[in-house]
Amino acid sequence: MPRPEVTVVVAVYNTMPYLTRCLESLVTQSIGRDKLEVVAVDDGSTDGSGAELERYAARYPGLFTVIHQANSGGPAEPSNRALDVATGRYVFFVGADDYLGPQALRRLVQMADRSGADVTLGRVVGVNGRYVDQQIFSQNADDVDLYDSALPWSLANTKLFRRALIDRYKLRFPTDMAMLSDQPFTLEALVRAERVAVVADYACYYAVRRLDFSNITFTPRRPDTLLGCVARLMDFVAELIPAGPRRDAVLLRHFRWEVAKLVGRDFVALDRAARERIQAEVRRLADDYLTPGLAERLFVAERVRIAYAQRATLDQLTDFLRTQQEEADPPLVSDGGRQFVAYPGFRDPRLGLPDEVFALSPAMAADWLARLDTVGLTWVGGSGGRLTVHAHSTRRELAYLPSGALRMAAGDAAAAVRVEADEAGTRVRGTFRFADFFDESTHLGAVRVVEASVTADGRTGTAGLRAPRGMGTRRVVHRRGARLYVVTLTANHHGRLVVAIAPVTPGRVVRRLLSRSRGGK
Description:
- This protein has helices at residues 18-27, 49-59, 76-85, 104-115, 163-168, 182-192, 223-240, 245-262, 272-289, 292-296, 300-311, 314-326, 362-369, 506-517, and strands at 6-12, 36-43, 64-69, 90-93, 99-100, 119-127, 160-162, 196-208, 332-335, 338-341, 359-360, 373-380, 386-393, 406-410, 413-414, 416-422, 425-433, 446-456, 459-464, 474-480, 483-491, 497-503.
- By secondary structure, the chain is α+β, with helices and mostly antiparallel strands.
């Protein structure tokens, strides 16, 4: 039997009905089933996922290798087990709730063979509002530098890896990391690879956000578990890459996306012991790895939170974070040709935080100008339904920008914007038509962040509208043709205003009725 071109690894745990679409996207790949093997490891599923794997294995003899095991608690162990039996020249990892474009594997293998790449990225598209950083997919590339590109922002393992690279360096997933376990594997592969290529002109991978329309936010991560995994990840980076600009280029992503979130909006709700552990570890990571050059590249809000964790007491840190949840953005202070964001603690001698912590670079000033706070929502129903988002900024100069300089949008839906100065800054009203929230893919459901963008002084900045935690969730039923949808306005796990669209299906109606019969809301 000829050696397959690609082994596709699928770690599976309770992903029905999404699993079916995933598997169907594999058996219909244009590369041909004769050049493909699928190794699927059922990690103790209880929802019928194991039976679905066996059904596909029976329908396509010789294509699937199905392994069943007791639940291991994460994707690392099943992925390692699949690697032990993989035989393809290349290995590709796919999430069991995601799916591939029909030509994905053929295009990826062609690029890898032509360029000689050890790791090849295919363009990833978010489904159902899932966020996927798109910087690395700006164009096709035969050779991308990890340290001088957006690669550090794309460390998921959903890539094509040359199996010779995996074997040469004995790459495996760390089984003691319940979260983020794909990042050490991917990062080491990128560091060891002689060449990394990108296929950007074709949507190879569809990353699906599983929509539970009774709660559209992602499941929160347990702070202690996340803390340990973030620390382990950053220590791994430090062991792999010597100190200097290259290490900083990778650690920037981890300070911004992981460390800063540890001292984010959920911190104040934790018990004191948990807050003490988090502050101590964030302080240690900042002391060890946050160089001045790296700190300068952080957003001001991230830099200030980390500085408080590093230099202030636990009570001062907690009070600062609590204040920031309740108040609008602080004013800017101009001094000596520079701008500073006057967060509490700015030039406070009791804290002794240096001005550089609060400094706003010209590149970041445009994004800061676009920051708005949601202060109210107004619905108008019916077939011509409208939603008005009422927002506010402490920057009064927004009211005097040229017409069209301030815009508001939710995905492709653009709002009609009205701007007016008041004594505390600028009031902004953005009115959306419900009809504009829908496109050809909305029947599957969608989640879109409401964003403001501002063009001033030759720069354009964009920021998601901040939504207060106490805003609650607003829902309205909207008819589009013969179908009904629930349109939901709420805050996501980043504290940003989102519009979620969910089709009203029989299953949803049944679940709602059952919930009410059991005393649910």
